[in-house]
Specification:
It is a single chain. This protein is of the alpha+beta class. The protein folds into 2 domains: about 300 residues, Aminopeptidase (3-Layer(aba) Sandwich), CATH 3.40.630; about 240 residues, Alpha-Beta Plaits, CATH 3.30.70.360. About 30% of the residues lie in helices and about 20% in strands. It has 15 helices and 23 strands. Strands 9, 11, 12, 13, 14, 16, 17, 18 and 19 form a 9-stranded antiparallel beta sheet that branches. Helix 7 packs across helix 10. The longest helix has 20 residues. The chain is elongated. The two termini are about 25 Å apart. The N terminus and C terminus are likely disordered.
Length: about 600
């Protein structure tokens, strides 16, 4: 496979220049520095050039207009029709390469939005400052922010296919589906209309494990718990203090939940509830997290403490810091617990939450600005103890492991965002599970906590899981191509995260779906990174698979004629199909590395 020609490189350079010079919708200072030589020389250089352009565009959930217009411009330059739907999704139809026009169409899908988070203490301003990728030790990362490789690289691979004649990739007719608001409430994919896609097979490019194919995914919902109560100014003899947990590694609430990383909201609440058992503290504010699908890396609370108890609280905080460091030395080596006494009431107004994204963005810690006008009032000691007890009793982390897929998470909960300033306390948690019944059970546990401690629960709209198909010709073809390229079979799994395939399945019940992608570590968190070599493998797999689906007789006939004798069969893990005549079935563990 050859890399992009000079014409392709000139187009990307021109696109980046246009982004900087003429497009205010990009957010101002788009980063126009050239592609690093370490990426320009790679086999996947077309993908990296597209990713560099996409990364220069601010694209939070519900703010995808700029990147959507960018893709429409590129599609128009190639002469490919592009159509939007009412939900804001974009569909680009790409004609087949010469000689393959009569082949079945294949759809590729990725989402345009990204999770915009900033490392505590960083000065990045979303919508003004551009992400600054850094090549380090074979990985591409962003030091102070999320990188947007989720799902920017999937989008970039689709955009790279628009290079047309400059790209030596043969394929049948393609439908490139760019969805919106995946990191929000799935409003994009849930707003798809039946019949818009004409393809009988779809490749989702939103997976994050090299050498693994996702053939199913978890469903989930976001529940919001609210606690209200009378607020009063603490009586004389109290001091204000801020307690903070910072430096957690965080990560995706689904794919990283098994890593045992600290949830800053939960651990701060655990400290405060222990203190409240002996000291009548008054909870004034509580801030942490950015989005419910990210494990919160930091949280802070402003609390009124009786002055006579302050030395004891300081000693408890010192002991807690030591234990916290010991407990999370491996999973969160940078985790820190800090307590500081505020010198006076006016200092409260100067405080900002540790997870605050300093700048305008959908991922910003909105309540931190409200701290600037926070009255010096707090919940009563009794109400504070009730609220803190509720926070510590909520399900958090892994709740059940899968019996069908050993070693994989079945259900989990992530208290991801908490806000308490001048009004009620609101906590949003993401509940994830491979079965709807398990998600409902978790939501019921939240309801019992709300009822017990005088709160109110608002259940989010659930998004469906994607059940593995008993037979998938598309996966058979992809497994055969992967084995040809890599010399081994990929691992087939059901990912513990929400993929848009789950929402598309009811709309397109006959659509044959598969998901794969490059190796991405730490999505939804500062320091998100992607292995550069894995993008080469991802691009080779995608382009070779598209060529095989269009050109090889075993695959090109479409979904009704792909089980013919001689086609390598995939292993379905927990079940086996009846083998095709003359072909022996491999054992279930043949899929595993």
């Amino acid at each position: 496979m050859r890399r992009g020609s000079g014409a392709g490189k000139r187009w990307w350079s021109g696109a980046l220049a246009a982004l900087v010079a003429g497009a205010a919708w990009v957010g101002g200072a788009a980063w126009a520095e050239g592609l690093p030589p370490e990426l320009e020389s790679r086999a996947a250089a077309p993908v990296w050039r597209a990713f560099w352009a996409v990364t220069a565009i601010h694209r939070p959930s519900k703010g995808e207009e700029a990147v959507r217009r960018f893709i429409e411009t590129r599609a128009a330059a190639r002469g490919c029709p592009a159509e939007r739907d009412q939900a804001g999704n974009l569909l680009v139809r790409v004609p087949a390469t010469p000689g393959l026009a009569g082949r079945p169409s294949t759809a590729l899908q990725g989402h345009l939005d990204m999770v915009c988070v900033t490392r505590p203490g960083a000065t990045h301003r979303w919508g003004i400052d551009s992400i600054r990728p850094v090549v380090r030790d074979g990985w591409l990362t962003a030091d102070d922010t999320s990188l947007g490789a989720d799902n920017g690289l999937g989008v970039a691979a689709m955009v790279a296919l628009l290079e047309g004649p400059d790209l030596a990739v043969r394929h049948g007719p393609l439908e490139l589906l760019f969805t919106v608001d995946e990191e929000g409430d799935f409003s994009g994919v849930c707003g798809l209309r039946p019949g818009w896609l004409q393809s009988s097979r779809l490749i989702n490019l939103d997976s994050e494990e090299d050498g693994e194919f996702n053939i199913g995914c978890a469903g989930g919902q976001a529940d919001t718990l609210t606690f209200d109560g009378a607020r009063q100014e603490p009586p004389p003899g109290h001091v204000w203090a801020r307690f903070s947990v910072t430096g957690g590694l965080g990560g995706h609430s689904g794919v990283d939940i098994h890593r045992g990383r600290a949830n800053a909201i939960v651990w701060l609440a655990r400290f405060l509830i222990r203190v409240s058992a002996t000291v009548p503290i008054r909870l004034g504010s509580f801030t942490g997290g950015t989005v419910d699908t990210a494990i919160p890396t930091a949280a802070s609370a402003i609390v009124a403490v009786p002055a006579r108890e302050w030395p004891a609280v300081r000693r408890a905080a010192t002991a807690f810091q030591s234990r916290l460091h010991r407990w999370f030395a491996t999973t969160d080596p940078g985790l820190r617990f800090r307590v500081e006494r505020l010198p006076n009431r006016s200092a409260v107004g100067a405080l900002r939450g540790p997870d605050q994204d300093r700048g305008a963005s959908s991922g910003a810690d909105a309540s931190a600005d409200s701290v600037g006008s926070l009255p010096v009032t707090a919940f009563s000691p009794e109400r504070s103890a009730q609220v803190l007890a509720a926070l510590t009793e909520l399900p958090c982390g892994i709740q059940a492991m899968s019996r069908r897929f050993p070693g994989q998470v079945q259900t989990s909960a992530n208290p991801g965002v908490i806000r308490l300033a001048t009004g009620p306390l609101r906590l949003v948690s993401h509940l994830q599970g491979s079965r709807l019944e398990a998600i409902r059970w978790l939501s019921w546990r939240w309801q019992t906590v709300a009822d017990r401690f005088g709160g109110a629960l608002e259940r989010g709209e659930p998004y469906p899981s994607w059940e593995p198909a008993a037979s998938s010709p598309l996966t058979d073809a992809a497994v055969a191509v992967h084995e040809r390229l890599c010399g081994r079979r990929p691992l087939l799994k059901v990912v513990h995260a929400g993929l848009e395939c789950g929402a598309m399945a009811p709309l397109y019940p006959d659509l044959d779906m598969l998901s794969f992608g490059p190796a991405i570590v730490g999505p939804h968190a500062p320091g998100e990174r992607v292995e550069i070599a894995s993008v080469d493998r991802f691009w080779a797999l995608l382009t070779t698979l598209l060529a095989a689906l269009a050109e090889e007789p075993a695959f090109a006939a479409g979904p009704t004629d792909t089980r013919s004798e001689g086609l390598p069969l995939r292993c379905h893990g927990w079940r086996r199909e009846t083998p095709v005549s003359g072909i022996a079935r491999e054992p279930a563990d043949a899929c595993r590395r």
